[in-house]
Amino acid sequence: MVDMGADEPAQSAWSRVDTSVPHSARVWNYWLGGKDNFPADRELGDKVFEVYPDIVRVARAQREFLVRAITFLAREVGIRQFLDIGTGLPTADNTHEVAQRIAPDSRIAYVDNDPLVLVHARALLTSAPGGATAYIEADVRDPDRILAGAAELLDFTRPVALVMFGIMGNVADTDEAKKIVKRLLDEVPPGSYLALNDGTHGEAVDKAIEITQADGHPYNLRTPEQVASFFDGLDLVEPGVVSTPLWRPAPGSEPQPLHIFGGVGRKP
After folding, report:
1. Helix or strand run (H / E) with residue 195
2. Average pLDDT of the chain to the nearest whole number
């Protein structure tokens, strides 16, 4: 259990959390049915839900995609190291829980720049015996800091899975966002994987983004083709970059597409 790059204790981090204004991580927690949210978060969450009721399904679909992707990486291709960037608030089936159920020796480095996540970091740092977890306080726009912190836990001579769910929309320029992903991929060896998804345009979701932007939480949606471009140079795992409910769904399920696309790709 390691705390890297987090320069202050949780009590001090809590002093930077303003519960009187909505916060994107807490709103997301509300949509997931969590308890780490406050009236301001629920008010904004309800405003978004009014114009985009699928947002609750999107939140849950992203978590379900994480479970399926991490399960694939740990069980089917034997990945034992994970760099989860844009962790968000801890909830059920965090990356280390999914990976270590399959392989208890898995090592997971979590990255977020949100003081609220730091407050809850202890929940992310509960590792199975034989494995290890770490929390790094860093921004996705600072890949060098991320890599330096992760290198204290992960062995970059062995394959690593980069996990980037719902995070790249925080980078407005698509070319800049692609450069960040490439910088991270350049540091990991062949046989490593990228698991990434993000929101895509649609009439209702665009209206929802206008509401969150008015509340000071801008997010940049992309086209499915732009999401797919993050995987340039990688070997895509079937079925490629698709609406995430359609990515290797559970047998017997009847998934419906949503405005969130993603996939998994292997570095050759």
Report:
1. strand 193-199
2. 91
